[in-house]
Queue: 2 jobs
Job 1
Amino acid sequence: MLNYPRVAIDFMNNDHAEFVALRKHLLDLLHTGAEHAQVDAMLDNLLEHTRLHFAEEEKLMLSVQFPPYPMHKGEHDKVLADMIARAEKWKVTRDAKDLSSWLEHAVRDWFVNHVSSMDFVTAAYIQARGE
Ligand SMILES: [Fe+2]
């Protein structure tokens, strides 16, 4: 169970719930020793979802000229780069334990932290600006 707050913008809440489900699905696959191809496909889904979600948030932040945009965008870029590197590493090593431990800990901590701080504040600002 991930403990994170609802934010003021609905599409962000929906995307966050989807992210949680994708992460869980991926962990389930890894824990049941699924085929590499299945894990690859889910990892691609997670990456694609994250890419689209970040782009959507960034578009909104720009449209309301959200002052801390560079900070929020910087964290998105860092996280995406890390995800891409992790996916590449998995494809080379096929180390299921390593990948699931990254998902269990680093991804969980990052997600809960990011939603509770940056997304929470950003959504409140956007909503106050009438979206
Ligand atoms: Fe964000």
Job 2
Amino acid sequence: MKFVCMSSEIKPGEAKRVEVDGRAPLAVFNLDGKFFVTDDTCTHGDASLCDGEIDGDVVECPYHQGAFEIATGKPAGAPCTIPLRTYATQVTEGQVFARLDGEDGNADRQA
Ligand code: FES
């Protein structure tokens, strides 16, 4: 898994945009101490979901108020119909890790 950020960087109910290895930005969400990593860019347009509103377990896009379930990436409000990508997430000793594309599990957990 890939190191994404420190859990202390994100307060409960907030999100942070993180760029890792030059790939498209990720959004790291803290929902009451549980962490989730998704793509940051809305699947409907070029909006950063980290700039949106978090309402319970849903994030609302700042552009057209579409919404996604943060844990699953499922569209939760029009006009979003394409699921948001989500990544397996793990927190170890205050560090947030995510399994990004092309990784074979824990190859670089020591990063
Ligand atoms: S860009 Fe996100 S709902 Fe349109």
